[in-house]
Amino acid sequence: MKFSGWPDQGELVVGRVDEIADFGVFIDLEEYENKRGLVHVSEVASGWIKNIRDHVSEGQIVVCKVLDVNTGSQQIDLSIKDVNDHQRSDKIQEWKNERKADKWMELAFGEDLDDDTFQRIAMALYDEYGSLYDGFEAAAIHGPEELEGTDLSDEEVSKIVETARENVSVPYVTVTGYVDLRSPNPDGVDDVAAALEAAEGNGEVPEEVELDVTYVGAPEYRIKVKAPNYKTAESELEASAARAEEAIESRGGTGHYHRERKSDDE
Fold first, then answer.
1. Domain coverage including residue 23
2. How many CA atoms lie within 13 A of 75 on its CB side?
């Protein structure tokens, strides 16, 4: 995703070295449409510079700090030396992530997606999450309900979530569901306790999965599953609820699994 505006003073930007002169380096900004900046020779590196080409070369990707922006003269002053190694590494990774997200947009909506629609969808995610990549990551982790606060249509949300879950690698995914447990028996408390014990797995939960069952408000209990990927998390969530339902029903009670928490007045 490329921005049509101007970078802000103090912002870190990714650029490609386009032209090298004795007085400085011209940089094409990768994140902004048709924007070019200049790194004065004094801002290329610390200390005296004998040959500017010892420090940069044409086509090189660099991270720069924006020193000044003059929209009237269409001039952007940049610095390479004011960016430390940590900032450079983080910014490059962020830029690479956004390039991945651009590809995911093509996968989700097709390569023929027009620019206006692309920008509208991308900005909806950017405004909500700060980056296109973070929007896809949130969709992969939390599913369609995560995108309810955006201006995207249900079809657009569905395409984003489907593409995100197929392509985004996240360290862990957390999903949540709820199960209602009721027993008409005099020892109904014991029936519910047995169902909760069954929900927790009785040692059947895979080692890489974290499963937690907590009380919400009678007769509702929350099941939270943390797993390496969405497919595993969903599978373990459904299995946990099924175990609870089976256990309570075997004792004459009833169990009902649902994804959203019920309102207090239900």
1. 12-83
2. 9
